[in-house]
Amino acid sequence: MSDPDSMKRAAAARAAGLVRDGMRLGLGTGSTARHFVDLVGGLVRDGMRLACVPTSEQTRRQAEALGVPVTTLDDVVELDLTVDGADEVDGALNLIKGAGGALLREKIVAAASRRMIVIADAGKRVETLGAFPLPIEVVRFGVAATRRRIEGAAAGVGCSGELVLRRASDGDAYVTDEGHFILDARFRRIPDPAALAAALSGAPGVVEHGLFIGLCAGAIVASTTGVDILGSLE
Ligand code: 5RP
Predict the structure, then answer these.
(1) 26 shares a domain with 117
(2) pLDDT tens-digit profile of 159-207?
(3) 136 Cα: distance to centroid of ligand 1 (angstroms)
(4) d(Cα 191, Cα 158) in Å, to the nearest integer?
(5) CB 152 within 8 A of CB 187
(6) How far apart are CA 204 and CA 200, in angstroms?
(7) Are 16 and 101 found together in one domain?
(8) pLDDT digits over 30-46, tens only?
(9) Nearest ligand 1 atom, CA 119
(10) Which of 106, 137, 151, 234 is catalytic?
(11) 95 falls within a domain
(12) CB 162 within 8 Å of CB 154
């Protein structure tokens, strides 16, 4: 495994080995999760019965095209397992997620799951979160005021940096599946992820942020030398 894509595929293959007949499964979003969804398609073709909740419209379209049975958290309120990618993973299994813009649904699905497992290439493993910009999903109303409030809340827990409004490829503001904007926070270093998560959650206008604290049970991290397991996959 020399390139990130084969590492992503290897991590996804290890996670596919956790899927059992009859499971209610959360399907993540992004290029690593895409490999996992492809493999789930193969399991379904081989006769496995699954009920799957996608974390984005993009993943829903992929799953449906593969014939994977798709449902919603209104019909299935608890999931057995969710497998998703991440932008950063630290040693305590705290995550930054949301580069793909799906952090809100991803967090709802992870929280509804008995187990959330992250699949990633080794480039995602960090000592301290924050080099990757932290996505913060905000309502469209009053973005400038929300930005200022986020800056104040973050400064109170030792984080500062530019908050950049995410843009789509056509130059317009990027709009999430739930109709919100995203501010990408370039904090560079997040000394206390739990404190920042709490501070951001209390800011009016913030819908959700990409810090996943205490949600991930285990991570499958593939490198050039093989696959490492952090935490527990059970
Ligand atoms: C999408 C996410 C993705 O899981 C995260 O960005 C990782 O993506 P990739 O597997 O493409 O590196 O959080 O919102």
Answers:
(1) yes
(2) 999 999 999 999 999 999 999 999 999 999 999 999 999 999 999 999 9
(3) 14
(4) 7
(5) no
(6) 9
(7) yes
(8) 999 999 999 999 999 99
(9) 10
(10) 106
(11) yes
(12) no
